[in-house]
Amino acid sequence: MSATPPTETVPDAAAGNWVDRRAPRAAKPYLRLARFDRPIGAWLLLFPAWWSQALAELWLGRPYPNPWYLLLFLVGAFVMRGAGCTYNDIVDRDYDARVARTAARPIPSGQVGVTAAFAFLACSASPVSSSSSSSTGSPSHWVPPPCC
User: Could you say which DSSP state residue 6 is in?
Assistant: First the structure.
């Protein structure tokens, strides 16, 4: 795999996004790996979840959704979308390195190694998967993995 030099932007992300403008330099490759610089995929996961929560609360006779559940859906949508993008980039790393549009992504460009990407994936997926499998969905049941 021929790594391209790290860049300050990714060609397929909108120019001037919040990751490029405000994120700490050390966090940028990981935020880009999780596609936080283009959140449309997380919104596409989040809005149906919020809508279903609102409908469920109305069916139960409550006037508005529980803010705690809305927050859990918000975090879950962004974290799980990021985990999915991370997995995709790990699997497609050799192909992405040969495509101009994706060559500057963190793994093909060498900004994040495969081992670090797997660790990031494990840390990203574990709080959501453990909270969704607990009986209450409470973050107090979450124990961070050793990689975090």
Answer: P
pTM, full prediction: 0.77
Q: Which residue has the tokens 């069916």?
A: 59
Over residues 9-38, the pLDDT tens digits come to 777 778 888 898 889 999 999 999 999 999
H-helix segments, the chain: 18-22, 28-33, 40-59, 67-91, 93-98, 114-133
The dihedrals phi and psi of 133, each to the nearest 5 degrees, come to -95, -10
Tokens representing 81 are 């979308």
The Cα–Cα gap between 108 and 129 comes to 28
Please enumerate in sequence order all residues whose Cβ is within 8 A of that of 31, keeping only pairs 6 or more positions apart, or say none: 19, 23, 37
Closest CA to 90 of 126, 115, 111: 115
Q: Which amino acid is at 31?
A: L
pLDDT tens-digit map of 62-99 = 999 999 999 999 999 999 999 999 999 999 999 999 99
Within 13 A of 15's CA, how many CA atoms are on the CB side? Answer: 0
Q: Which of 148, 23, 28, 129 is nearest to 84 (CA)?
A: 129
